[in-house]
long-chain-fatty-acid--CoA ligase
Amino acid sequence: MFPWLGEDLKILRAGGPVKRAAEKAVENGYLIIDKFEHKVKIHPQKPFIIYEGNVFTYEFVDQQANKVARIVRQWGLSEGDSVALFFPNSPEYIWTMLGVAKLGVTAALINCNLHGKALVHSINLSESKYLIVDTGLLEVIQESLPELNHYEIYSQGSLQSSLPDGLVSFDDLMLRALPTPIHKHVRSNVTVMSTFCYVYTSGTTGLPKPCIILQHKAIKISKLLSFFGGNSKDIVYLFLPLYHSSGQLSWLGSIDLGTTIVLKKKFSLRSFWKDIKLFDVTMFQYIGELCRYLLSQPKDPLETQHKIKAIFGNGLRKDIWEKFQARFRIPLIVEFFGATEGTGFNCQLSNKPGAIGRLSPFLKRLPGNMSRIVKCDYETAQPIRDQNGRCIDIKAGGFGLIISGIPPEAQVKPLYKASVEANDKKIVRNAFEDGDVYFNYGDTVYLDQDYFMYFHDRLGDTFRWKGENVSTTEVANILTDIDFIHDANVYGVTVPGHDGKAGMAALTLNDLTNLDSEHLQSFYQHCEHNLPRYATPLFIRILQEAVLTATFKQRKVDLAKEGYDLNVVEDPLFIRDDTLKTYIPLTETVLSTILTKSKL
């Protein structure tokens, strides 16, 4: 009678113990740093991080974290204060986060791809007076020094003798600091409701916003690796950015289980399978675009000579899932759905191609389940209400907006720091009964007849490209700083052979009808200097007049549907050419040539 019940049982068997362990840790006030220090006592000499040929044991990382804690304590910081970190992936990143956690200080994780206005904005929102910067990013920081002159800036990776005036060597401080343990009483004021870190997300409007990750949420994130079948014997390959929630999942989960991390500064196609084989990697986290890159490469003899038992992540589309799994002989692919600021989590353990989770009538009624899929207005990205003002659940075989309940204990602090507007926009109140509160992901999903969920589309003011959320408002604000642009309407468009959506900007111009080669080159340079590459528009459309709603808001839906279809769009279209470092007129030949490149 219920052929899908067996798939639910897989979720229950894996998720039940994880849920109970997380609840017990939260109830006992147990923190991530407590878990790490416990693992140090259990196996001090076990490798914790392997990085660029070096092995860092749990004990060594703890000693480095103690040094960081002593330095930060001398600055007079404690629970409620924050330190901004501007790093690429490195062991220093991890032990610096652990060091500030020993004091209950919050780490603000600044995206290391940012520069200019977005970088200064992100640092300012951390409300920290202290900024620690990797030496490789000093040039980026120096460009913005006049706007950051109220910060004490420390360089990680440089001695004082090599630094310009105004910067202090963090390495020199580390050399002088003692590695002796920091007693737990120094963080006695820290509770599970204290803030562990800020992870920046584009959200749906404006510049990057710090999402507040509370200590209890960090604990819950750390339990997910065991949900995916992880244990203490695993070797986890981590190449996703530590400033992102994806990277946080892998290293926090490794602490919880006591695993070893093989850490990479960034993803490398050249060394990927070599590393997997060399270090006996058993698990790694993916994003869909990465899987497509791997699948596009010539066959490597090492690609099946591995000990991988499971991979986990999001964005692996159905069209390449089976090819990827078969070619690389991956026993289990765990696709999941969540958000940095979200309160719910969905996944499936059934190897169901393309499915991001399950929401059967049985699972929906279990205590603790918070996810619902409701009918929505695609223009506003908000739920549709019935005659009683309540949200309307979709039925199997339908599309809808995914939302998740926010329990009372998670309502103590806002989703975002210093952004009342962003918080209000993501909250759905009185959804099913008076007083309830739900988080709106802004994503639509499809629920099939067996109650598997599939990602459908991202609504509203963001789209996802290269594993990053792109705020259309942020990009538009930066584009309109160009003197010949009157307005910019930014949206995402589908690109064949690539996951997510690439950026497209429909522009209205000041006293111009089109852009000449000089304007196009200027536009390209402006984007290069002010936007991360993933947020830079791939396409430009020149409008003779803005496309607005009756209330003078930008209309995106119709423009996004038309995209860059040369058979539909009569306006001038251009495409970014990174070889020529400009934008060039779009033709079928040009489109075919550029889209066949491995990277856009």
Remarks:
- The mean pLDDT is 91.
- Residues 82 and 471 are 25 Å apart (CA to CA).
